[in-house]
Amino acid sequence: MPSLGTVSLLDYGAGNVRSLINAVEKLGWSVKKVESPDDILKAEKLLFPGVGAFGYGMQRLRSQGYDKALLEYIKSDRPFMGICVGMQCLFSDSEESPGVPGLAVIPASVRKFDSKTKSVPHMGWNAATSIQADPPEAAIATLNHDGPSTRYYFVHSYAVPYTKDLDDWVYSTTTYGNETFVSSVRRKNIFATQFHPEKSGYAGLKALLSFLTHDAVSHSQSIPAPPPTVGPFRDMLTRRVIACLDVRTNDEGDLVVTKGDQYDVRERSEDGSKVRNLGKPVELAKRYFEDGADEITFLNITSFRDAPLKDLPMLEVLKRTSETVFVPLTIGGGIRDLKEPDGTVVSALDVAGEYFRSGADKVSIGSDAVYAAEQYFASGKKLTGETAIEQIATVYGNQAVVISVDPRRVYVDSPESAPAHHVIPTAFPGPNGEKFCWYQCTVKGGREGRDFDVYQLVTACEALGAGEILLNCMDKDGTNSGYDLELVSDVRAAVRIPVIASSGAGKVEHFSTVFKETNVEAALAAGIFHRKEVPLQSVKDHLLKSGFEVRGVEQ
Ligand code: 1PR
Questions:
Q1: Which residue's alpha carbon is at the smallest distance from atom 15 of ligand 1?
Q2: Can you say whether the dihedral through the CA atoms of 12, 14, 15, 18 is positive or negative?
Q3: 148 and 297 both lie in a single domain
Q4: pTM, whole model, 2 decimals?
Q5: Range of the domain at 331
Q6: Most buried residue among 84, 137, 193, 417 by CB atoms closer than 10 A?
Q7: CA end-to-end span of the chain, whole Å?
């Protein structure tokens, strides 16, 4: 198909721009990467997907001479679209990087969300309430409000608080907890979104398409005066439903999606014990995207075996998945220092970088996080800057680092029986009537238990800079008996970062129960989706009926 046009993309190399390129190409357009300030000056349409910290972004722009070119480009009235930090850079400065000036196109400051009453980062699907009347003449872009369930994907800890004096700029606002912030700006040739259109399913693709195709901007006019803003604004952040694909090579050497019972992925059959094969990773991920999954997580479950970086099978899976799936993708398994066959060590940061360039938005760290957290306590809670968590969070942002926890329940008679551990009372007594338990961390996919508990792990990882917890439970995995609510509540209360409940989902009610009883941000399931026992959409329908905000499936 001939290209409908070309958009220039300003990438300073910190994160996943592959998804944005894939989204633009899916819409029939071509992407030309900016390689010099001159490329900016010559561009006819410019996309700026900022990634990472504000200061890092501005510093990269300045060191490459892109800042001046950008300002000149914007002044020349040609179409500009900024995304996430690419929007924040338009403002004067940011609390994230004190003393670093922004481009100062819009006179306001970016501020950190208040984490006293809510999890930070603001991560997930939220509404963007338009406060500008859509003008009859072409605007630089429009958001498509297909109905009340239209949501866009956000992931950020900093935002511009909404105030009425910004109304000349503000296109939409979004509310998170007690704060209403600017979720998009639109004026003359400038359109910018705090959310990620390339990760916002079909609603996001439509927003992107409108920027690509609307070029009849009336340059001399700004958008008509906005209607009076309405309030009070309502937090419409949805609970996320995540489909998880455990991937490994089966006995025939094919890469398959598998699923264990309490982490045992082999069939219990008379003719031996084959690895369960529940489908192909790329195809299943596409099916879940179309069914309305809010995120897709891939876990490479045999990653403790060394493999050369270039042969990591999940790189290709991510590349292919990100061509057709436009929601966030997480990859876990093997995010650690790797030893190449010639003995060279590739750092966890470089391994993660390879995954981000292949289409991942977040990496999830299992075993390595346990070792790092043990070290953190052993050193008297010192931050060395050397752990994979710290390094990846510094370069790609905290939101890009998920900690995958593989705990096992250990029953005890009383808290005094395990003084070194975080012991909680349980309503489900142990085999000898024990009324207390603690949760032991494991590594290598549950193959090895450590003398370290989940409370220690998650608090350490939060301090090291992780952005989210993926909380599995070995006792519940594959049982269809519901999430371990005691574990999930305990972890939810221990940290401020978002928590994903995982392991044990068997019916739609398990999702509403875990959200109601523990207030987690997301719930993940695997087996019920793979075996087609519970359609994803029925989970969303049930949550909606139970009074939860959910993202609908738009086409
Ligand atoms: O240690 O950083 O290399 O990461 C290894 C990763 O692989 C970890 O995230 C670990 O959880 C995962 N993993 C390793 N072995 C297994 C296994 O099953 N044998 N899978 C495994 C973990 C649990 C969830 C599952 C939920 C929901 N599987 O991924 O999807 O429990 O299942 P359900 O809804 O069917 O109950 P590293």
A1: 445
A2: positive
A3: no
A4: 0.94
A5: 240-545
A6: 193
A7: 22
Q: How many domains does the chain have?
A: 2
pLDDT per residue as tens digits for the range 71-101: 999 999 999 999 999 999 999 999 999 999 9
Q: 336 CA to middle of ligand 1, Å?
A: 16
What ipTM goes with this model? 0.98
Tell me how far the alpha carbon of residue 288 lies from the centroid of ligand 1, in angstroms: 18
| Phi, psi angle pair for 466, to nearest 5° | -70, 155
Establish whether residue 333 lines the binding site of ligand 1, counting it when its CB lies within 6 angstroms of any ligand atom.
yes
**186 and 317 assigned to the same domain:** no
Which atom of ligand 1 lies nearest, measured to the CA of 365?
2
Angle at 187 between CA 184 and CA 189, to 5 degrees: 110
Ligand 1 contact via 503 beta carbon (within 6 Å): yes
Active site residue 168: no
Encoded tokens for 339: 């030893």
Ranges assigned E (strand) in 98-212: 106-112, 122-126, 129-130, 152-156, 158-159, 170-176, 179-187, 190-193
Tens-place pLDDT, residues 199-250: 999 999 999 999 999 864 444 344 444 555 556 678 899 999 999 999 998 8
Say if residue 169 is in the same domain as residue 274. Answer: no
Residue 465 inside a domain? The answer is yes
Q: Same domain, yes or no, for 398 and 312?
A: yes
The active-site residue, picked from 198, 361, 453, 484, is: 198
84 part of the active site: yes
Q: List all residues 6 or more positions away from 102 whose beta carbon is below 8 Å from its beta carbon.
A: 54, 58, 88, 89, 90, 91, 92, 93, 94, 110
Q: pLDDT tens for residues 511-542? A: 999 999 999 999 999 999 999 999 999 999 99
Rounded CA separation 405/499 (Å): 11
